[in-house]
Design goal:
5-stranded parallel sheet; OB fold (Dihydrolipoamide Acetyltransferase, E2P); hydrolase; RNA-binding; 24 helices; alpha+beta; 6-stranded mixed sheet; 5 domains; exosome; single chain; Rossmann fold
Length: 931
């Protein structure tokens, strides 16, 4: 049966055109009930033990997805009209709903009501799309009831008052979410129910729970029409809100419209915005701007201090909460200060933490109101209702935010699930993974089905394949961290008769096993990268691939993708070639072993000779790169020694970089650049590259100020002048130069993946490497970006056809965006894992050690502890102090007592005591104090 659907749309030229589409209606779409006497039941999901079959409307899915994900909710019909609406309104919820529907253990059935001849409805004259969709949902629910008859009760679940009224008038059984959940006899499920919004059913029932009669705490957000107008007129400024990790009452909004960061002081000026929200900001009058020196580190006890009534005008806007003001002289220019007047896009998600300790209510029954405290200090406390308080007080739990009313001091949310006992290492590690959106679930059977059977070995077909060169005769070796099992790169260096060297970088041929469009490829694409925690690795690809089939292990034949150069003894590249290959590694060395071989003059074996030749070439290449302006930066990488049985940290220290590390890095950089040039030459519009934007002057300002305070002149005109300045920044302290480089690293932008068709060639530049072009090719076992680049390289050589996805620029851009998101999250998770294990290590080991001051603030300073690679705040004042005891000299980067008896300056060495304390329940922290 054929129907016509028509709608109007606007073209790129601004014309409005009418579009007519044919809409096919069918009579062979089945209901999904296994007990149906009429339909084909082969794909049915709804079993006869269901007392009710429930039909949910769009708003129930959008607002109650946490409830729907709970296994207690089953026998659900998801209508195609609901799926389409959810997809248009919230892609994240849509993906979660699709995941439930595709889970074979859940009884969710997708019914294509929009294509069934008995359930399709045409829009009536004057009917809104929303009303038409609500009617379509009711028609489908009615059809199900008539179709199944007395075999089952069909129930429409809706919190829309009008939709429920019409359903009942039309003879359809309908209930609210809350009343349906109550009927299940599982009170704990009520904790998952999001409270109804205004205009929904039962709003009167919850009105008493809402703080509607209390005084206004925050100003109302402006409507979007007013925000849009304000942005166009330059009165308002748009940007992402970033909350200071040391001070949750201080935030920044990077604004392109004024070319600077706007500082937001205090929760009232943040006006219910969360970290990561896209906000509209109004600049405050200049007299209310704060000097840089007053950006204090917030103390744990300050949590409740920043409470203000919403100002009636900008003139009443509260000042920063810090009472410890410095001197009037020697201040730097004030930065623009502002306040949030609207939220353009929310960044709310689920948060991990625990409940504020509180006494159990009398009788230990009924609904308890509790405050949830996130582990992330940047997140405000969240008010929830729970019927299981006794079970949750000692647990790490997940909570979602539902709303934040301007008369409520805290946002309102609901309990999602329990993670585990507070303080348990497994629980706290899961918190790290959840907070950074890391998928650590086991690989599905569909993904594992894509793997070749084990044991796997190179076949005669592989060796006979004309695209693959047999390089098993080469003396190939790998150099990796100790205990590395996922070895994705190996090297060789052979002296040629003409005095030159043949140098090869051999990379695991992952794309030989990961085909485009397979479940394995889709999973790797989503995960984006392997994640390295202190005590474990969360793989992007299943272990049989990462540790066996693809890993370039010692004395085992493996498939590789090779970059081979002929180089002169001066490290000039004469020629470059790329080939798929078969190799057999003759040694799998750790960095320490490789370094020991090079350093031991008694060793003259062939592998050691190859290592020394490669190291000689690498030093020349490195020197040449630095001459071009490449930066040698430093980071505070920490290395733990882990107990093999308990997995607790036994020792902690800075990660040591050796010449062997730098040698491997040099050839990996060279391979990535060579491959980048090759793929861009053949595919100028769809190559995946990596760029590192130059830092702005504003980003470098803190570094310049710090350097000037200690008498160092850094020239930041280019990466070359900065590199030269850093080389000259030496002091008596052997650690001084590394500290300056660490501070420089902090000022840099993030390197990012991008599609070559999205930018112009000058924007491809990699600032840190001083390279015009760069990509990632050398780690396909652990990075999906490299998998994409392998496919591009193979296509450029005529080995494989370029997959269809490379014709879709929008899709490529979204893949690059996901890779950047996943890469950053992996870095954050690694850091959080280091922080967790640092707390575990120092909990039983209070320690005195030396630290360097890296940032001065009005009530203390931030220090860096070289021995352990730890950074944290040291407080000079407490809330008990009335202020005025310490003065900040921003120009000299000093903080000193008013009587001049004690002073501290930036990069000064101080002796500190490190100890784990718990100033707030369930929030342990490493406290640093000056001895």
């Amino acid at each position: 049966m054929l129907q016509s659907k028509s709608f109007v749309r606007k073209t790129k030229q601004g014309k409005v055109v009418k579009v007519v589409r044919e809409h096919y209606l069918r009579d062979d779409i089945y209901c999904g009930a296994t007990f149906c006497k009429v339909c084909d039941v082969s794909g049915a999901r709804l079993t006869p033990d269901a007392s009710n079959i429930i039909v949910v409307d769009t708003n129930v899915v959008l607002h109650q997805i946490d409830l729907l994900e709970n296994p207690a909710i089953d026998y659900v019909v998801v209508l195609s009209v609901v799926l389409d609406e959810v997809k248009n309104k919230n892609i994240s919820v849509y993906n979660r709903l699709r995941a439930i529907c595709s889970n074979s253990l859940r009884k969710f059935f997708v019914f294509s009501n929009e294509y069934h001849k008995d359930t399709y409805v045409k829009a009536l004259a004057g009917e809104t799309p929303n009303d038409r969709n609500d009617r379509a949902i009711r028609v489908a629910a009615q059809w199900y009831q008539n179709h199944l008859g007395s075999s089952s009760c069909v129930l429409l679940i809706t919190n829309d008052r009008e939709n429920k009224r019409k359903a009942i008038d039309e003879g359809i059984s309908a209930e609210t979410v809350e009343s349906y959940v109550k009927s299940l006899g599982k009170p704990e499920l009520l904790d998952l129910v999001v409270q109804p919004q205004s205009g929904d059913v039962n709003m009167e029932e919850v009105e008493d729970l809402r703080p509607s009669k209390r005084k206004v705490i925050y100003i109302e957000h402006k409507p979007m029409s007013e925000i849009t107008s304000g942005l166009l007129r330059g009165i308002l400024h748009q940007g992402k809100l970033r909350v200071n990790r040391y001070n949750p009452f201080e935030a920044y909004v990077g604004s392109e419209s004024i070319g600077d960061e706007i500082v937001i002081y205090g929760r009232s000026n943040m006006n219910r915005a969360f970290d990561g929200d896209i906000v509209a900001v109004e600049i405050l009058p200049r007299e209310q701007w704060q000097e840089e020196k007053s950006l204090a580190i917030a103390e744990e006890e300050d949590e409740e201090e920043d409470v203000h009534l919403a100002p009636s005008s900008a003139d009443d806007a509260p000042r920063v909460i810090d009472a410890k003001q410095g001197s009037e002289g020697n201040t730097v220019p004030a930065r623009p200060s502002g306040r949030v007047v609207g939220v353009i896009k929310r960044n709310w998600h689920s948060y991990c933490g625990s409940l504020d300790p509180m006494p159990m209510p009398a009788g230990n029954a009924g609904v308890a109101h509790a405050l949830f405290v996130s582990k992330d200090r940047r997140i405000p406390k969240i008010r929830i209702q729970t019927r299981q308080l006794g079970n949750l007080l000692d647990k790490r739990i997940i909570v979602s935010v539902d709303s934040w009313d301007c008369v409520s001091r805290y946002p309102s949310g609901h309990y999602v699930r329990t993670i585990g006992e507070i303080g348990d290492k497994e629980t706290e590690t899961e918190v790290v993974l959840i907070e950074n959106d890391i998928d650590a679930r086991p690989f599905t059977s569909q993904v594992l089905a894509c793997l070749p059977p084990l044991p796997w070995s190179v076949s005669s077909e592989d060796l006979a394949n004309p695209i693959r060169q047999d390089l098993r005769h080469l003396r190939v070796f790998s150099v990796d961290p100790p205990g590395c099992k996922d070895i994705d790169d190996a090297l060789h260096c052979t002296a040629l008769p003409n005095g030159n060297f043949e140098v090869g970088v051999h990379i695991a041929d992952v794309t030989n096993f990961v085909y485009p469009g397979t479940p394995l490829d889709d999973e790797a694409s989503q995960r984006g990268t392997s994640v390295y925690l202190v005590d474990r690795r969360i793989d992007m690809l299943p272990k049989p691939l990462t540790e066996d089939i693809c890993s370039l292990r010692n004395e085992v034949e493996r498939l590789a993708f090779s970059v081979i150069w002929e180089m002169t003894p001066e490290a000039d590249i004469i020629s470059t070639r790329f080939t798929k290959s078969v190799i057999k590694s003759s040694a799998a060395l750790s960095y320490v072993e490789a370094q020991a071989r090079m350093d031991d003059s008694r060793l003259m074996d062939p592998v050691t000779a190859d290592l020394r030749n490669m190291n000689t070439l690498a030093k020349i290449m490195r020197h040449r790169r630095i001459d071009r302006g490449a930066l040698t930066l430093a980071s505070a990488e920490v290395k733990f020694q882990i107990d093999t049985e308990t997995h607790d940290p036994l020792d902690i220290g800075m990660y040591q970089i050796r010449e062997a590390n730098q040698m491997v890095e040099e050839f990996m950089l060279a391979a990535n650049i060579s491959v980048g040039e090759q793929i861009l030459k053949h595919f100028p519009l769809c190559s995946l590259l990596r760029r590192h934007p130059s830092p702005t002057k504003e980003m470098l300002e803190p570094l310049l100020r710090t350097a000037a305070a200690i008498g160092i002149d850094l020239d930041v005109t280019s990466s070359k002048t900065l590199a030269d300045s850093l080389d000259q920044a030496v002091g008596d302290d052997p650690y001084f130069n590394k500290l300056i480089r660490i501070l420089t690293t902090r000022c840099m932008t993030q390197a990012v993946y991008f599609c070559s068709g999205d930018l112009t060639p000058p924007e491809f530049h990699h600032y840190g490497l001083a390279a015009a072009l760069y990509t990632h090719f050398t780690s396909p076992i652990r990075r999906y970006a490299d998998v994409i680049v392998h496919r591009l390289l193979a296509a450029s050589l005529g080995i494989n056809k370029l997959p269809d996805i490379f014709q879709d620029g929008t899709r490529l851009t979204s893949i690059a965006d996901n890779l950047n998101y996943r890469h950053r999250n992996a870095q954050m998770a690694s850091r959080a894992s280091v922080e967790l294990h640092t707390l575990i290590y120092f909990k039983k080991r209070p320690t005195d050690t030396e630290a360097r001051i890296v940032k001065i603030r009005s009530n203390g300073f931030i220090v860096f502890v070289p021995k352990y690679g730890i950074e944290g705040p040291v407080y000079l004042t407490t809330r008990a102090d009335k202020g005025g005891e310490w003065i900040v000299d921003e120009h000299q980067q000093k903080v000193k007592k008013t009587d001049g008896s004690v002073s501290y300056s930036v990069l000064q060495t101080v002796k500190i005591h490190m100890e784990v304390v718990e100033p707030q329940p369930n929030r342990p922290k490493l406290q640093l104090t000056v001895i």
